[in-house]
Amino acid sequence: MPLDGITINLLKQELSQYIIGSRIEKIHQPSKDELVFHLRSREGAYRLLISASANSPRLHLTTRAPENPATPPMLCMLFRKHLTGAAITDIRQLGLDRVVFIDLAGTNEIGDAVSFTLCVEIMAKHSNIILINSDGTIVDAVKRVDFTQSSVRQILPTFRYEYPPRQNKLNLTETDVDVAVSAIKNCVGKRLSGAILETLEGVSPLISREIAAFSCGGDIGTAEMNKIFEQRLEKKLTEIKNSLLSGKASPTMLMRENVKPYDFTFMDITQYGFTVTARPFESFSELLDDFYYEKDRFERTRQRSQSLLKLLNNAAARAARKLQSRQAELEACADRDTLRIIAELILANQY
Q1: Model confidence, pTM
Q2: Residue 281: its pLDDT value, please?
Q3: CA distances from residue 210 to 139, 194, 222, 266, 267 in whole angstroms, order as listed
Q4: At the top level of CATH, which class does the domain 177-288 belong to?
Q5: For a tag site, which of 61, 70, 238, 323 has the least CB within 10 Å?
Q6: Class of domain 5-141
Q7: CA-based Rg of the chain, rounded to a whole angstrom?
Q8: 97: helix, coil or strand?
Q9: What is the pLDDT of residues 190-203, one digit of tens each?
Q10: How far apart are the C-alpha atoms of 38 and 84, rounded to whole Å?
């Protein structure tokens, strides 16, 4: 699944233990949508990977940083100019939305104290990494968005940074569980998973289906809920809220056939039955690092197998065309012996 707001919140709490207080030593840009920050603190050195890729936007500590290009891109040089030597002072999240802010403090060329904010928006094809200065002005971004791409929100240097449009959902950390249950019940004409998805901020379709399965044994309509189902729903939401407030969760990768990464989550998942197996991890960074590495490896294998299959299909088609041509030639020469004898007789009697 893509990173949902709840997982990002738990990941943010985990990252804050490692990166707050650390300084940026190096910055690399392995691809146009990825940045790797080499951090150092009293506890040790870390590498923070931030990706705005449409297929796998994310941020986490990594031990498998991609290979760097021989010549750093211009954006990487700009980030190095402003952020090399800067200290990370805080990491924040916009509610339970998929927007993370990393606050940094450093000095400019003449030694004056300056502050920046690195905004990471994890929103599928709209994902972005934006550098903002202390007065809220955009310095630059991995993906620039001009008026031709969006008439609502532009991401361009010297423009004021504006938050992504909010969806007016309930933040479970700031809302009483009984209020959330009532709001979910008031979604008339909806399935329970759809009502949860529409009501609560930061919940993914996977989690909303799991909550519905736990509460009612299936994805029933909100109008079909009774008191027992409501109590079970309240219990599950309370567990999730306590996980968010305590920062304690169960980073888990779901795998098909025991080897292929399928999904990841912060809680136990039962909706798939025996079709997937769960593999626990010590941290969300380790989970995401392994999940996307394995996913990319399977994707590369799939692409190579498709290329090989295409090559074989082309070779087979070419061989079939050659065979058809040879067969046509043989059919055209089927009476060659008779024609040869006739030609020899003509030559022998041409006088």
Answers
A1: 0.82
A2: 93
A3: 41, 12, 15, 12, 9
A4: mainly alpha
A5: 70
A6: mainly beta
A7: 30
A8: coil
A9: 899 999 999 999 99
A10: 10
